[in-house]
From TrEMBL:
Species per Swiss-Prot/TrEMBL record: Xanthobacter flavus
EC assignment: 2.7.7.65
Catalytic activity: 2 GTP = 3',3'-c-di-GMP + 2 diphosphate
Matching SUPFAM superfamilies: Nucleotide cyclase
Positions in coiled-coil regions: none
Assigned keywords, A-Z: Membrane, Transmembrane, Transmembrane helix
Stated name of the protein: diguanylate cyclase
Amino acid sequence: MTDATFLLLINCAIGLTFAAAFLAISRRSSVRLGRWCAAAFACAAATVLIEALAPDIPSVRLASTLSFGSLMAAVFFIAAGMLRHYRPDSRLGWPGAAVLLSVAFTGLAGVDLPRGGWAQALTYQLPFGAMLAFAAGTVLRHSPGRAVDLVLAGVLGLCALQFAAKAVLIPLDGADNGVRDYLTSAYARYSQTAGSILSLMLGVALLALVVTEVIAEATGRLERDGLSGVLTRTAFLERAERLADTAPPGSDIGLLICDLDHFKAINDRFGHSAGDEVIRRFGAVLASCAGPADLCGRIGGEEFCLLMPAADAASLLRVAQRLREATEHLSWPGLPPGHRVTTSLGATLAASGEPLATALRRADMALYRAKAEGRNRVQLADV
């Protein structure tokens, strides 16, 4: 067994191990990136297996085409996975297929060119580098800039540079004399050693990203109230405290506390399933009235809270009235036709630096006044 063959087997084992790990993670999570990564590493493992078996494949052209095709598939799955993960609204579709086919045909053209020359090296190697550079650029442009994203972009960039280096190294060394002579060449030892290192780096970087997203997904589920879909009391208060602590000087935070009127009577008359449906639909209405930067939480049985960063009295009351009216005019499955559900709201503005607990107590007192004055109304607290 040559040194290159041994390195090929190591790379095959690395690819299969990462493919199995990503597949196992993706089966227990909705993070779809793991499936793209599993497919990529499975194709990478197939590539090195084909190269190891190349001397036994009857046709040199067939061996070269299979090797190129499987590696191109691996690189494509990485690039497509990055695009779908960081830009989930994107569609690969016909444009993606056209790009892939053009890149693939460019590389396949290199299969029939004279071995060891610049034309063959560039047309064969650079398509891989271009796809990986695209993947790195996607991460840099569209990621939230976390450390795990930046590390991944750097590793993808190194992988792209490796293919560019191979395109230069082959003609300079006269290294590539054909796929069947590959296993006995010094170039194979370099290529597979670099491949082992970069495969491990890329696998670990991708695994770190997938695990980060899985943890974020699990944390998000724990922070969401299972019935209403908004934040739980604990999650809401923790995030609200962070927002209050980091509010710019001179800016106010708007707080609304909402309480569903006569909710106990709904449970008593129509059953808890009807009450649950009221909670579920009100949570959806609250979320629809909130802005993208606002926080919504269920802080009690039928009590909810909305936090608006950088609010003023006019915008706070406008949202409160919209929420009150939307609740009043909504239809409620499980309740008799025409049965209205209303909500009372207490509103207040918290000045920068004011303890959140103080503002919440003030909003709560305003809510009690709204209840006392007849319900289905908004009461702004005196500051």
